[in-house]
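Hi C.,

You asked whether I'd gotten around to modeling the 465-residue construct. I have! Everything is below, sequence then structure, no commentary in between.
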Amino acid sequence: MSLRARVTIAVGAIVFGALGIVAAVVYPVVGAKLRGTSDQALMQVAKNAPTIAGKLKQAGTLGQLVPFGSTQLQILPGAAVGHPNGFVSVTEHDVEVARGTAKPYFHDEAYGGVLYRIYTTQFARDPGVLVRVAQPASNSATTQTALGWLLVALVPAAAIAAAVTARLAAGRVLRPVGRLTETVERIRATGDLSAPIEAPGGASRCRTIRSNSRGAGGAGSSGGADEISRLERAFAAMTTALNESVSAQRRLVADASHELRTPLTSLTTNLELLAERPDDPSAPALTAAALAEAGELRALINDLVDLSRDGRASLHIEDVRLDLVAERVAARADRRVPGLRYELECRPTLVRGDSDALERAIGNLVDNALKWSPPEGRILISAASGTVEVSDEGPGIPAEDLPHIFDRFYRSANTRALPGSGLGLAIVRRIADLHDGTVEAIPLEHGVKFRLSLPELAGQSDSDG
């Protein structure tokens, strides 16, 4: 069953039930109101009995049932139990009312095939005289019956009208949902995540969402937008993010295949040469080259594994001297690439974190500096107040690439010919996020400075190792 049909049935059922409850309350209330009005009319006629009695005496009809407007009036002097002329019998209760020993009362009784509403009371200031005022009960019953039939007709008619209106309104309200559904089906059929999503006004929101998907607030921050518009924007943002993720993964496959192909080819060639000539004097050099290529493969695979965990890996949190970690990374880099000048400016600073992860992050920053530093270039590594900075004298980062250098798998056009997979800086940002820290790139006149900032433990900046 379609959503429109369910809305139609639900609205119709709700309206029918609500109006049914209203009718069930109104019908008896109106009936009681009509009876109360009828009783007030009978009591008013009884109050006028002394005035009417004189006229009846003159007409010789005193004691008979005479018409008085829409009612019937009977005044019985010397009331006694029995059958008076032309009306219902007088009971013992009626006689007590006439004597003043019982209160006036209302009751319904049939006479001549007609049901009457009868008010029995004492003639004013004249004990023993009985006054009875009667009115056919069908007068108010007819009005109540007419109301009942009207309610019986109106309740289902109103429910049907509400259901039809709800169906028309649902069709209009759900039209954007229908378009969204068509878009989803088209995406499922074609796999094209860039398919535009039409807004209620007919204009595509795809570009707007794509430009705002990285902003704070995202798709769900609109103040006055209705839920359907918010759904469209949220879905557009989702498909945009998914499209970017798929594109990034495709770039990863292309980059990884390129990076893996070279060391695999070299490794295979060296191993084939060793297999053909195991006693060749160059065997040790071939073995060393093969081991180096295997190390490159291992590093690349480790990068891929680290990023695939998406921050879910467990960290071993402890107090870490960030300055000592930076010094270890610098010492290792000096041994690996001794041709550069390394300058250290470290002061004791203590943070809470995973020592291995932080060493990996600082190592990636230093490796990036090594990659871009010119021969005999200077690399400055500083650590203080929970912050590590790594500066180089390389060509710097183009302005158009600066906002994206920490994105996963991102590689600018200038770096695609160089070794690397574009994962190192993304790993640095992920480690910074896991430690509630930040990482940023600051362009210099010659080169670039990377700053990794972490929350420092208060009062521990001068701790000894």
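If it helps when you're writing up: The longest strand covers residues 114-122.

Thanks,
B.
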